[in-house]
Every structure is written in C-alpha cells, then in structure tokens.
Design brief:
Layout lengths: L4 H28 L10 H55 L6 H22 L2 E2 L2 E2 L25 E3 L5 E3 L4 H6 L11 H13 L3 H54 L3 H26 L3 H5 L1
Antiparallel strand pairs: 1-2, 3-4
Helix pairs in contact: 1-7, 2-3, 2-6, 3-5, 5-6
Amino acid sequence: MRVTQNTTANLVANNLQVIRRRTEELEQQASTGLKVSKPSDDPVTAQQILNLKARIAAGDQYGRNISNGIAWLTMGESAMSEMGNVLTRAKELTLQMVTGTNNPDAVTAGINELTQLKQQFLQMGNTQLNGKFIFGGFKNDTPAFDTTGNFLGTNDAMMVEVDRGAPIQINYSGADLLRGGTPPGSSGTDIVAAFDNLITALGSNDMTTAQNQITELDNGLSQILAFRTDIGARRNRLDAANSVIEDMKFSTTKIMSDKQDIDIMQVISDLSKQETAYQAAIAASAKVSQVSLLDYLT
C-alpha cells in the first residue's frame, strides 16, 4: 500500500496535537502542583479525594469540639478546686467557733467571714467561660445562682461529639454540685444550706447545730472531690480522642497527598521529553512540507 503525502502530513499533524495536549497537561500540573485539578482529569481519583477531604474536615470539627470540651472541663475543675478551698476554710473557722470560748466580737467576725465564704462559694457556682455560665446547663447565658443560692439554671447535659457516634458530656449541673440535687439535698449534700444553717446557728449561739454542720461540710468536700475525679476521667477520654483524631488526620492527609500532589521532578522531566518530541515532530513536519511532485519524477 502506498502512503500518500497527505496521509503523512495528517499523521504528523495528529502527533503534534497529541504532544501539545500532553504538554498542556504537564504545564497545568506544574503550575498547580496537583495531578487532579478537576473531576474530568480522573473521575475515580477525584471522588476519592473529595471523600478524603470530607474526612479531614470532619476531623477538624471533632478537634474543635475536643478543644471546647477541654476548656469547659478545665474551667470546671478550677472552680471546683476553689470550692474545695472555701469549704476547707469554712470547716477550720467552724471548728474555732464551736468551742464556746470565743467572745461575741470573735463570733461576729466568724459569722462575717462565713457569709463571705458562702458568697465566694456561690461565685464559683457562677463561673463563666466565654460569657457562658458553665454550671447553668442549657440556661447558661444568665447566672446559675442568685445571691441567696437558688439555682436558676437547668440540669441538662451538654454533649460534644469527639468522633462519629462518640459524645462526651462536658458540663455539670450546678444544682447537683452545690445543692445536692433537685430539689436541694435530694441526691447529695446541700452545701449552700450547710452554710446557711451554720451562720444561723452561730448567730443564735446554737453550738450543737453549728457543730453538726461540720459533718455537712465534710460531706460537701467529698461531693466536690467526686466531681473533680469524674472531670479527670472525662479529660483523659478527651485527650485520647484528640490523639486518635490527630493520627487519623495525619494518615488521611498523607493518602490524599499521594493521590493528589505531583512529583515535581518527574513532571519537569516529562515536560522536557515532551518538548524534545515536539521539536522532532516540527522538524518532521517541515521535511514533509518540502516534498514536491518533482521529487517523485526524479
């Protein structure tokens, strides 16, 4: 079969177009750093990259949830630590007052300090984080306790999702913590009532009732400590969840990079090869265009 000049010219032109398209692809990869910059480049890989990006985005959100949860628990633990200090001081003061050897001025001074300690205790119950009262449940935009110790919040649990289907509660009810449940004293020690009873008893010189409140203060300390222990357990779980999320994001990012990012040295090498092939095709095209009818007659 005889190959005509026209067929040869078409073949050369087609090769030039193929080389040019491949060169454009490589130039785009070199400029973007991506093997797949649009779905049409590789539909299957593009879908996989989208799924991997979604996993990383979800991991970022879980990370923010964990960070928020750690902040709430840390602030709660700090408040409870100060509550423990207040109760310890109240117990020391009560032990001094119930001896019956204090003069009226000393008793008055003791009552005043206990009153201030109660207010300090309630102030810890109104601890805020970013404008939210952390012991107020869902009603956390206003103080959880009034000045007399009435709980104004809710007992709702605030949950954060630290992984798919893995929620963790980050708050504690102020009613359970300071008042021993709802109604007060129904499930624990009503520490606010212990303060009130103590102050009233000392004011009326009822040392028996005042002495009985020492047990309530001890129970209150145990109640606060139990909540602090639970905070430690939840904090450990958040730390573990954060470690899992960070590992997942690292491995997923690496997989996505393998699928999406180019090997810049390989792309540059391929570009050089395409340029050489393009120049050779141009030279062949020029050679074909020089052939005339006289070449076939000689």
